Amino acid sequence: MEKLKGIKMAQFFWLLFITIYSYGQSQNGVVTYNYFVNGAKKEAKLRFNNSQSIFTIKKDQLNKKKVEVIGREEENSNMNIDLYFNFDINTPISLGMLTDIKNNYTIDHNFFPIDFAAIKFDTLFVKDKARIISWELLNETKNINSFSCQKAIGNFRGRTYTVWFTNDIPVSLGPWKLNGLPGLILEATDSLNQFQFFAEKIELQMEVNTLDTRGFFNHTYITPIQERIIYVSFVELMFKEITTKIRSSMPRGVVSTTNNANAKVVDENNLIEINFDDIKKK
Predict the structure, then answer these.
(1) What's the predicted TM-score (pTM) here?
(2) How many CA atoms does the CB half-sphere of 64 hold within 13 Å?
């Protein structure tokens, strides 16, 4: 009887050890980040396994807006123009960004309006390299959501990022295109605090997390530089049409003295990727 009890206790502790070890070595899960873009808060999720991840941004928190310009005249005042910016209310939900560390690539799925009405959209698949960033590992540590994290600094496309990663989740992944460290990145901030990622919730899974990546393949892919050209062209078109609407709302005889026609509409310094020097060198 005592011998039987001893066997059962041994089996119990063995199963407990396997469970704790498996949980501690878990390389599958979901991280919910608070994502700040120039102060605006968004929610993002990173679904990951040991070599792949899909990063998505919650759509209903984006500024999906459409432009309306209304002119009105008030008593004893000049013409007032109300500009209601409510852009792109019909934007479909994208697949997000797939990162494959093993095969060294990212594929970002986006929609871009093909006209100012934002009713029809181009589907873009932007392919890029993963593991681009050369990180400097520092000796500083801190805890994030009960995970011990180490500090690292790296430069990527015009920005310097300070990140915190955890070896407790040994996957070389992170939010957006931030990856290539020995553990999962739970926090990242650029030096100007324009782009920030903070892990709000971390859910580890015992079972293998098989990501549905089928929608990312068998497409025509463009480069990040080509995507930037498309983006700038669209913003310039939007700016031109807004200007036209404002001018058409002005009373007869009033001359617009707004922006120089040659002024730069898009300031790359406010975008997450300021330059593409690493691609241009190739």
Answers:
(1) 0.80
(2) 18
Residue 243 CA to residue 256 CA, distance in Å, equals 9
Give 209-263 pLDDT, tens digit per residue: 689 999 999 999 999 999 999 999 888 887 787 777 777 766 666 555 555 555 6
Q: Which DSSP string corresponds to 227-282?
A: HHHHHHHHHHHHHHHHHHHHHHTSPTT-----S-TTS-S--GGGSS----HHHHT-
CA torsion, points 208, 212, 218, 219, in degrees to nearest 10?
-130
**Letter string b/e over residues 22-54, b meaning 16 or more CB atoms within 10 A of that residue's CB:** eeeebbbbbbbbebbbeeeebebbbbbbbebbb
56 has pLDDT over 50: yes
Total residues found in the chain within this entry: 282
| Contacts (Cβ under 8 Å, ≥6 apart) of 124 | 109, 110, 111, 112, 222, 227, 230
Q: What is the DSSP secondary structure assignment for residue 83, as one 8-state letter?
A: E
Spatial distance between the Cα atoms of 226 and 210, rounded to a whole number of angstroms: 31
Give me 193's structure tokens. Answer: 């605090």
CA distance to 98, 159, 187, per residue, from 36 (Å): 20, 15, 12
Nearest residue to 282 (alpha-carbon basis) of 128, 147, 144, 108: 128
Residue with tokens 């062209």: 233
Q: How far, in Å, CA of 109 to CA of 126, rounded?
A: 6
